[in-house]
Amino acid sequence: MKAIRTTGTALAAALLMLVLAACGSGGEQAGEGTQPAGGGSEAAAGGSEAAGGEAEGKIAVLLPDSASSSRWETKDRPFFEKAFEDLGLSPDQYQILNAEGDAATQQTQAEQAITDGATVLLMTNLDSGSGATIIDNAKAQGVRVIDYDRLTLDGDADYYVSFDNEEVGRLQGEGLVQCLEEAGVENPQVAVLNGSPTDNNATLFAQGYNSVIDQKFEAGEWTEVADQSVPDWDNQQALTIFEQMLQQAGDDIDGVLAANDGLGNAAISALKTRNLNGIPVTGQDATPEGIQNILLGDQCMTVYKSIADETRAAAELAVQLLRGEEPQVDDVTNNGTKDVPSVLLTPEAITAENVQTVVDDGFLTMEEICGGAAAETEFCQQGG
To answer: Which of 20, 84, 102, 140 is an S-S bond match for 89, by CB 3.0 to 4.6 Å?
Structure first.
């Protein structure tokens, strides 16, 4: 009997241990399910990747236009396509749309994309008002939104991916200072061509370069002959505006702070018709046209923003949201209503001395740069 009792006790103990082990295991699973976002995101990411990224829904990228800058179609679109492919998405899991400068079109595109199954919008707004409307409509339907490149003021975007845009402006201001000093111009007459007044980025660029050049104006070292914004970043309007600036100044302009390469090229075109080319002009976006103007001595600098890095960062956030994860980022940007979790990348000034940077990064090819008159420049003749 004693042996039987011992065996029964052992069996009971064994059963008890099994029960406790099962409870313990269940407790650990429950604990994992209620971990902070970081741990849960890793688990979700692993599950999605194991399933080949087969998350429900789609990503819709809403680009603004192709007239204000060539970058949207020639750089952002192909870089997004590559980023999504690298992240394991198939072509039917995303779409890239361009509003071609029409806010109503962008709103229609957003609504149709959601109808077609988009659960994440990656948007470069045309203006904050229309952008906020798109975001509100999307959020009401449970769609997540990332502000891409441009912040939507007073909007409700979940994330924001861009560059430090005040730093972009500071680089432009510092670049013009250096170019005018190298040109040896005393008390230069300077004109300012700002970007679109409805684009928050243009405001940030201006804050950056004004922090530099206003000191020159206030000290009496420079004279500001004109300061005007260009609606919708329209290059043709920029040409008209700058021709009027030249006329009013009696052609006495020694330097131009232009907010991007398109506006800069408009100013250069007007200067050339008066045989005034070679005057320091700034830019931004490191477009082929802008780089060519630098090599030809008609533009003194541009600002390079690695769009490959920007699209990759935005695509990574979008894919995480598509897979039900909650990305963790380091920065925030206040949009007037809320602090938006942000990824802010670093821009770089480009002059004739470091043009090779945009080639080495794979941003532009020698063929893109060395067309037309630029083919005869030393940089192109020596192969970079």
So the answer is: 84
